[in-house]
Amino acid sequence: MAEILSLEFMRLAAVAGVASALALSVLGVYVVLKRVVFVGLTLANVATLGAAAALALRMPIELTAIVASLAAAAALAASTASRRLPPESLIGWGFATASAVTILILSRTPGDTDAMRLLFGNVLAISRAEAVMAVGVAGVVLATHLVFVKRFVLVVFDPDTARAAGIATGAWVLLLYLTIGAATAAAVHETGALLAFALLTLPAMAALLATRALRAAFVLAPAIAVACVLGGLILSFVWDLPTGPFTVALLAAAVPAAAAFDRLRR
Amino acid sequence: MKHADPLLRFDDVALGYGEVPVLTGLSFHICRGEFLGIVGPNGSGKTTILRAILNLLKPSAGSVTWSGRPTLGYVPQRERIDTIMPVTAMEVALMGLAPRLGPLARLRPADREAARRALDRVGVGDLGARLFRDLSGGQQQRVLIARALASEPGLLVLDEPTNGMDLASEHAIVELLTELNRNAGLTILLVTHLLPIVLNAASTILLIEDGRVLYGDAEDVLQEEKLSQLYRTPVRLATVGGRRTLVVGASNG
Predict the structure, then answer these.
(1) Which side of chain A, N or C, has fewer Cβ within a 10 Å radius?
(2) pTM listed for this prediction
(3) Is the Cβ of B84 closer than 8 Å to some Cβ of chain A?
(4) Partner residues linked to B64 by β-bridges
């Protein structure tokens, strides 16, 4: 353990991974309860598209990824059901478009290493600046949700009543989506879209299965996420496995484990 | 009208969405202490009136005026709430205080006491620790009414509060609302598609049917001839066990 932590790249990976795990898993509770888990996948792919465009156009990669993800988050928050199409169809359109355009851009962009990192992430290749950015974004997101938790819960639980009480429901939903967009974009560049999506959805699923109280789910989800991220980093290093997919596998295993725990408890 | 203190007045109001009119020439008022039942089939414009009362829809003509706008306690259609969220009945009741407290305020012991009192008032004080999703439809509706009462509203607005309930639960909810109106003096506006729901509870009734409107004191509106004309089918009123009941399509005799 001491040997692992003596490595600078492992320490940076741990710091950035824990920061992203904390922010995404808290947001994930809302994402799962609002039944919009694929918002996370779409935003992760839009962030990757932003990063790919920035790579091709020689612009700041992290900043462009966050701006792209925030713009997509705002569009998804503003989308409403029409008589002919449900809002989920826009999420599907965004996912397909972002994925295809990213690959098209990267196919014409020199530098395979950067392209592969954009697509799949590499938590072990995080720079100090990237770790600082991950901590900064996670800090803002967590502080926002800690301060306004009651308002977010009301707007997600019963938007009709919130609206009737004069609460600007649209603005709160926009803020929720913007925080999801920012946290996802910050994580995508370090971890790749797959791990960012997994951190957004799987810890929240496990926590909601293992506990019967919302308050407890907001505590348990980040605990599961952090345990899996740190466990994934250490065990993948020891067993020489790819860190991102191995961490996703741990997060995925947490869901049936939580279901089994819930069944045993009854 | 028996009540002389108008709280809300609709004068020759037209309501609609974009260029599509839903209701025109609508005039009625709600007085303090009144129980107004707005009754009409799905798509008749009841929810549109509700949206105007909740200030979510501006009239395209006419005026909606308040005489000292009270705190509104709103009880939405129960089916509109996604019960997947693991919140307790107490947490739901506390949500009723959120608009008054503002986004940054922290809950005080007095707020918890207000929510507990509201749960007690509607007869579910012992269910505060239970998850909202685990309660029966009738219990959930009582918790939603408690949430609206927690803010000590001047007007309680309910949208189809008995939808999807069995007869006993439906009766219990209507009895609860009648008690809140008659004994506590709470002003109530209830929207429903079923006239029998408000038959014995409402002091004033607004009936909407196929664009036609019938409005007035319950005693004036609930006349067999007027109802038969409005619904274009024979309607008979009878009293059973001291309570009014309705028979539709019945022949004389």
Answers:
(1) C
(2) 0.88
(3) yes
(4) B10
